[in-house]
Design a protein that fits this description.
This protein is mostly beta strands and 176 residues long. The protein has four helices and ten strands; from the N terminus they run H-H-E-E-E-E-E-E-E-E-E-H-H-E. It has helices at 2-7, 9-12, 150-154, 157-160; strands at 18-26, 36-44, 46-55, 67-71, 81-87, 96-103, 109-118, 124-131, 143-149, 166-175. The protein has a four-stranded antiparallel β-sheet with strand order 3-10-7-8, with no helix packed on it. The chain has a four-stranded antiparallel β-sheet with strand order 4-5-6-9. A hairpin with a 5-residue loop joins strand 7 (109-118) and strand 8 (124-131).
């Protein structure tokens, strides 16, 4: 099956779009008078966006202070995605670093997101992920917490804060 799919990918995924056609039956086939036939057609579009969220003077970032960047995907004319990095306010626990992602288009649903901390050597360290592609509810991911706390990053400044800046690579998969 995989071989057929790979050889005929252009037939099944023209322009990287999967189209599914299904028939929905009302009632059971043996009750003819109550049976009706209708059909539905839908398309699922996946947009993959990756960007580097940079925050200068990370050590001076105060709790709840947001550092926001706007990303304008090429495929969406006026639409943009807002990404805000902030430190969570927690009096009884360690302060966590969080990324909040808000698309300007309500039809864009963030279903998968991976976060990577870029170290001084240019290596990516996985530091957070969320994947709701297989959940029944169609909820968008809005906030992700990095697995590194603020204290952990500050204690390794030479490794994670070159010139006082933190760099987080964000990889997102939007479904529409």
């Amino acid at each position: 099956m995989d071989e057929i799919f790979l050889r005929r990918k252009a037939d099944y995924l023209p322009h990287d779009i999967l189209s599914v056609r299904c028939k929905i039956w009302k009632g059971e086939k043996k009750v003819v008078r109550n049976t009706g036939q209708s059909s539905a057609r839908t398309r699922i579009r996946v947009e993959k966006i990756s960007f580097l969220h940079e925050v200068q003077n990370f050590s001076k970032l105060e709790t709840k202070q947001k550092k926001t960047v706007e990303i304008r995907p090429h495929s969406k004319g006026e639409h943009f995605i807002s990404s805000s990095l902030h430190i969570t306010d927690c009096s009884r626990c360690e302060e966590k670093i969080a990324i909040e992602i808000v698309p300007s288009d309500a039809d864009q649903i963030l279903r998968k997101c991976d976060l990577y901390l870029l170290d001084a050597s240019g290596n990516l360290k996985e530091c957070g992920k969320a994947d709701t592609r297989y959940d029944i509810e169609l909820k968008s991911i809005t906030t992700l917490h990095l697995s590194f706390t603020r204290e952990a990053v500050l204690s390794r400044k030479s490794e994670y804060l070159p010139d006082g800046q933190i760099f987080v690579t964000v990889q997102m998969h939007f479904f529409a």
